[in-house]
Design a protein that fits this description.
Layout: H1 19-32, H2 41-45, H3 51-62, H4 73-86, H5 90-94, H6 102-119, H7 138-141, H8 144-159, H9 181-190, E1 227-228, E2 234-235, H10 239-250, H11 279-286, H12 294-302
Antiparallel strand pairs: 1-2
The protein binds a DNA duplex through helix 3, helix 6 and helix 8.
Amino acid sequence: MGRRPCCDKVGLKKGPWSADEDQKLRGFIKTNGTKYCWRAVPQRAGLLRCGKSCRLRWANYLRPDLKNDLLSKKDENLVIDLHSQFGNKWSKIASHLPGRTDNYIKNYWHNHIKKKLNNMGIDPITHKPLVPRPPTHDHHNKSRKELRKSRELEMHHQHEGKSIDEAPVLEKSVIPNNDNLDLVKENLTIDTGFSVDDIPLIQPHEMLIPPLPDDHLPSNNCPPSSIPTPSTSTKCISSSTLNLICEKLKSLPYWFTNDPCKNYNIGNTSYAEDGEFTDWDWLLNNFDIDKIDPEIFSKEKKD
DNA sequence: AAGGTATACAACCGCAGTCTT
DNA sequence: CAAGACTGCGGTTGTATACCT
């Protein structure tokens, strides 16, 4: 047996609330509190709304403790951090921000934060660097709105851990992995024309570097500018090595340094309080070229 | 200036969990 | 224990306004 709808909806008003309706609801709650179940509220308050609509209006808009101003930079960072932990659990995120509702956080995410993260080259769903997609004819045939929609769907599927082929989208992104590395590289090398929306506004020094395997991470006993080697000795980087590293890295497509495969991990990743990525500094300070899989460079030569 | 498009926000919808009877 | 009622939640849609061509 299914649930009955909360009301028959016949003769009830829908859409935006008028100031008069707000006044009636506000006055009713002020006088009676929320002791009545919401189904009873519209009739008692003289409103032609369903109880659920009243509850939402009160919870998301009329409650006196709500803040309506934009989030501060600090709160924005908090939302981003919480979203990376909880995903789209808007109520959970909102519970950390007094005076904000889940609906407010959800809207704010979609209208402000998501765009900012995209511009920073960060996938707002996975919180990982965006991967550029080879262009398709769809870029020319579809409206920007349609493209955005299909891209959102696509990212959602990636977040759900589904394969690319499972995503019902018109343009497929390609995630580098052991199986398709060459294919990805080929696509990126042959055709680098992206739509304007695809270009992440990210500078080379802002690139994320995936984490080293634990046994390659510097231990607390090591000085900041050194890194343990398999022989347990430590090495400091020379300027010539640094130049070599830079030259080698410059020759790689940027996704190489973001490869989710562990084979090419050469750095550690973190996100600083002020929104700056710090690991490029770490990489330059601690990098040991001997630890790079030589196959990276041999692949370059082969291509 | 007008029409089209993008953006921001409010509100709705429907599912699911919890409570009540 | 089962069924219904209520509430919370997340996704989606509608709409007003701003912006662009």
